[in-house]
């Protein structure tokens, strides 16, 4: 997975590229400080721990954009448990 950070327009966006799996969560947490937007447009694969992490990020106020429908649905289902 690759992480790119962009701070333009007064917003910090973190773009994730590739397979985002649980071993990448700590790396992302270190870069999330002050980030308001997570762009998942180029994420190809996630696991259940990532889905739970993304759901928690959203609950704490992060905006998740360009999220594939299967990831969004999985986040929704995990939130119901």
Write the layout of secondary structure elements.
Elements: E1 2-8, E2 11-20, H1 25-31, E3 37-46, H2 48-59, E4 63-65, H3 69-80
Parallel strand pairs: 2-3, 3-4
Antiparallel strand pairs: 1-2
Helix pairs in contact: 2-3
What this model shows, in words?
By secondary structure, the chain is of the alpha/beta class. It contains 3 helices and 4 strands. It has a single domain (2-80), classed as STAS domain (Transcription Regulator spoIIAA, 2-Layer Sandwich). It has helices spanning 25-31, 48-59, 69-80; strands spanning 2-8, 11-20, 37-46, 63-65. Strands 1-2-3-4 form a 4-stranded mixed beta sheet, covered by helices on one side. Helix 2 links the parallel strand 3 (37-46) and strand 4. Helix 2 (48-59) packs across helix 3. The protein starts with a strand and ends with a helix.
Pick out its properties.
81 residues; alpha/beta; Transcription Regulator spoIIAA; 3 helices; 4 strands; 37% strand
CATH superfamily: STAS domain
Derived structural class? alpha/beta
CATH fold-level assignment: Transcription Regulator spoIIAA
Care to count the β-strands?
4
Terminal-residue CA separation? 28 Å
Outline type: globular
Spatial strand sequence of the major β-sheet: 1-2-3-4
Largest sheet: 4 strands, mixed
**What's the architecture in CATH terms?**
2-Layer Sandwich
How many domains? The number is 1
- Chain-averaged pLDDT: 91
How many helices does DSSP assign? 3
Question: Uncertain runs with pLDDT below 50, 5 residues or more?
Answer: none
CATH top level?
Alpha Beta
- Helical coverage, percent range: 25-40%
User: Beta fraction of the residues?
Assistant: 35-45%
The succession of helices and strands, N to C, reads: EEHEHEH
- Radius of gyration computed on alpha carbons: 12 Å
